[in-house]
Amino acid sequence: MKWERLLSRGRFGEKPGFIPTQAARSEFEVDYDRIIFSAPFRNLQDKTQVFPLPEQAFVHTRLTHSLEVSSVGRSLGKAAGEFLLEKYPSLSQSGIMASEIGGIVAAAALTHDIGNPPFGHAGEEAISDFFKFHPAGLAWQKHLRPEQWIDLCQFEGNAQGFRMLVSKQYGLKLTYATLAAFTKYPRPSQIAHRDIARRSQKKFGFFINQLADFEQMTDFLGIEKSSDECWLRHPLAFLVEAADDICYSIIDLEDGCTMGLVSFEETVKLLQPILGEKFDAKKLENRTQSQNLGALRALAIGALIQQTVEAFAQYEESMCKGNFDKALTDVIPAAKALQAITDLSVQKIYRSKLVLEKEAAGFQVLEGLLEVFGQALYHKFYAPSRFSGQDKSILRLLPEDFPLKGWGEEVNPYPLLRALIDYISGMTDKYALNLYRRVKGISFPGV
Hints:
Blueprint: H1 3-6, H2 27-36, H3 39-42, H4 62-87, H5 89-93, H6 98-110, H7 120-133, H8 135-138, H9 146-153, H10 157-166, H11 176-182, H12 211-221, H13 235-258, H14 264-275, H15 289-321, H16 335-350, H17 353-382, H18 389-395, H19 414-425, H20 429-439
Helix pairs in contact: 2-6, 4-6, 4-13, 4-15, 6-11, 6-13, 7-17, 11-12, 13-15, 13-16, 14-15, 14-16, 17-18, 17-19, 17-20
Keywords: Hydrolase
Domain HD: 62-249
Protein name: DNTP triphosphohydrolase
């Protein structure tokens, strides 16, 4: 893969021959601005990061997390860009600047969670479980092709994100470079063999009905295949992944300490190996815990950015050849320290009673919404003798642009179900909870 092509300014959805405008903003800054002002991004303000439906202002939502990941991503991308421009003078001659490479990573990092449903990873499991186990979900299986059914039974926020970014509904028309940097898992859900040694094959990155969109992107950028069914990562996707890894490791720990789930002393002990010589216990004196946490977080993130950029420089050629396929944060000097933070976070934060109780509620909410809407759609189009007044009332709650025409016994309902999942996965936590209460008769509007 060649950097000149990987950094193309061409846009998805534009007609062939499109020439980017030379304006005050770069094409990748335009990407960033389009994302910031999009409805899917705004919805992240009320979606779970770690603590569902947080009541404390200092706890991160998907929105604040995404902004922080984007900030770290810009730093990583710009530093990596300076390295690339020095190594490949032809990039400078073609007009590429380090700030533009930082802009690609920043924009892609801004969208990295845009496809996540309400209630975080519990929401992903809830949608998958509905089709795998619930009678109202299983009823659809006989109408679908095997690869479509696998998509539904393995809801993946990364694939949902790609779907939203290329959707005509939102009209983002991002650059191919930003789309590719966003795509950490360049494969479909169903493949004959998954190479567990390749990080990029851990999950999947697009649904089967976005295959043509994905191939359009990879063809434009010259991204090669690693096998008959999988592609290589765009090298900048490693930086987007690293920005996310850095932020959730350090900042989730900070949140856990603030919530009282991890002691301050234990937090300092975990961060100290990352800080190395920059750690000075005397500077912790005569300051509040909040001030100390903020200072330690900033120092730790700075150290991790430096180590990650050095690792990128070391493995950049191997990335372009497809020989390197690991998380950059797994090969930096602080890798063991990050793993120790992850291990403790799983034990004391991600599996805390507060988180588990609200995740359990999230399962009920999403399953309940999928049940009432999915069953009403099934009765209307595939079992009309059972289409009830209640079903009719439920379907009137769907958005005005929901595709309610053209379906029937002989029509494959996969696009219909994708539209339903778009609707439910795009909800905020509180909206999903309130709608669930109303359709189940637990609460009434205005009461």
